[in-house]
Hints:
Number of helices: 29
Radius of gyration: 33 Å
Amino acid sequence: MDLDALRFGNFSALDAAITDWQQMVTKLADLRKDAQDNLKTKADKANWAGVNAQVSRTFIDKTAGEFGDAHTQADTIAKILADTRGELVGYRDELNLAVERGLKKNLTVLDTGNGSFTVTMNIHPDRAAKGTTVPEHGQQDVDALRDEVQRILGKATESDTTAAQALRLIVDQAKYGFSDASYADRDSAAAAIKAADDLAKIFKKNPHDVTNTELNQLNSTLATYKNDPLFAEKFATDVGPRRTLEFYAGIADPYQASYDPKRGELAKQFQKNLGITLGTATLSDSDSMQEWERQMVKLGPDPLGIDDASDPRGFAVMSNLMRFGDYDDQFLNDYGDKLVAFDKEHNVKDLSPWVNNWNHADLNYWGKDDRGRDPMNGFLEALGHNPDASTQFFAQPDGAGPTVDKDSEVNDHLKYLTKDRIWLPDATFDGNDKVVAGRDSLGHALEAATTGYAYDAPAASGKDPLTPGNLDHRTAETAGVMEQVAYLYGGEDGPKMLHDQPELADSLGKMGSAYIDDIDYGLSGVGDHAKDAGDFPARYAGRADFGNEGAINFLSVLGQNETSHGMVTAGQHIYTLSLLDANPPTDQASYEHGKDALFMEAEARGILDHSRVQQAETDFAGEAEEANKSLGRSADWGKFAVGAIVGGGIAAIPLPGTTAVGIVVAPIAADIAGEALNTFIGQETDKAVDKAESDSTAKAQLTSQQFYRAGADNLGASYEQYFNDSAKYSGQADSDDVVRNLKTTYLSTGSDEDDLRGRPPYKD
């Protein structure tokens, strides 16, 4: 900064700009509130149909969000400008005081242009007026004034340039719309940029020469700034995509960490912190980040040409970093398209380019069953954390529908990953080599694509961790993915696919539970006619349409596996109870709705339970005790409801028997739970406490006869609870022979009664 620019600068224009921005912040705050409270809230409550349901609601949601981002960006700009103005005025005052002190020693400071200046004598003694005593000074005084002025100008220059840099980065973050980057002042933005510069310098070193102290510093800084948009972009673009991959491969190389447990733990945290940071960086729309993303995708198929980690391909390294973080949707889709295309070309039995005897690149420190050699695993984990990107990646092809009933209506990526790809286990020495971690990751990606939630979204406990407002995140697009999943796993090959891919059972159970209302709607018709939207209303626009036979087949396959059977049964019961809550037997119309809900559960549970019994008898032919134990475990499906939090149109059910994050989502008929649903959840919680105090292993044995009896008893309990306080409609139900018909519907519904009622059990 030039000396005269600071000394004589006119701040009136800057003052006016700050005032304008502050006024804009106030106006945008009102617009943001109005957009959220009126525009979005009314849109959420509106009964949309047709094109409006698929386009307008999404547009309104994004528009409301843009008002929020506009306010955030304006507020940040106003704060940085005001803070910088205050600093510059302070430096100007310091400079003027320093000049005044210099004059007292007969020294003056002159601007010589281009940021330079000179300290010189103000009045030569020989030219002083007669009788005037000129103050004396020495070289020490000259040096001191020079250093003080230089320090002030340096600080002012830093304030000015870092403010300009921060403002440019903020504006460039969003090519269209506004950035949500928020900073309280110039100092905080400048600190983020400086931290990025400092870390980028370490990345220039040979990773083998990076000490544990430096690696700890990297982790500490990344952990602090991993979600900071300015830091993330500056860091990523300064380091560059190739160097990022080379450096991580060098740090992660097992031959570097295996002899130092501390180093290995630092590398583990580094993988996570770096991955999250890079994800944050990709959310920027700046030209430099767009180029970074293009180069990263381009590097994917080729070896990096390094000595570390068996000279991995770019895909192998980047996929392990993207296991963590929120990545740009388009980047993930571009990356995934190229990865799948490359993978298809090398999908040859016993010739995997990833998992083979000469590849010793353990690039993943998270999980004993996944060394990280197969890049498809990490990429699918990234999709599992990025629902919108996953929904796009597995989107239903144009022209498919109204139901998916042929292979040409299935997304090519989905078809390849579920049916054609050769999946290999990639466990560490102390892992389970029978587990194919990649298929588990595929399940995670499909959960996100169909439910709209990250697969490991935390279960509700204490306070709601989910999005405020309407918690049902399903859309016509997520339903399009779900229809494909139901077609594939409910198809003729479905039983074999589920048997060969046991790692997907929990994910399929989650998906089935999340769409149980649409499955019931499909079951409610006669063939594909007369489906009852009155009894099973759509909870979102563009609901999934599985067709009557498709719904039956999908349920029958889910019923074959213990895990998926339990999750879907719990989802079905919760949804039924919510329908009973929403339609108390106080009038004829509600009675009819409640009765239909009970019959639908009987039918759906019949399909699920018959499939479960058949599969247990097939799996354990000649081993009655094992078959009975399997049925005993399946009869304990109520464990999935323990700890459920209900609100916003869903029940969020924590995964049982584990501290792992993740939820099973089940739709409910109203925004909150009623008495029937709350009673059920409370009873199951009490049972869980009782079982925790005793060994239930010996008790968990049921013959098929007892298993069906338990199912019928559960349906009977729902019947009694529903009609308990209504003598009038209890009598009508008795006249209508509802009990007998419920029992018949449950016990006579299943693939063993009629080949058209589902898929037969899988047989080796």
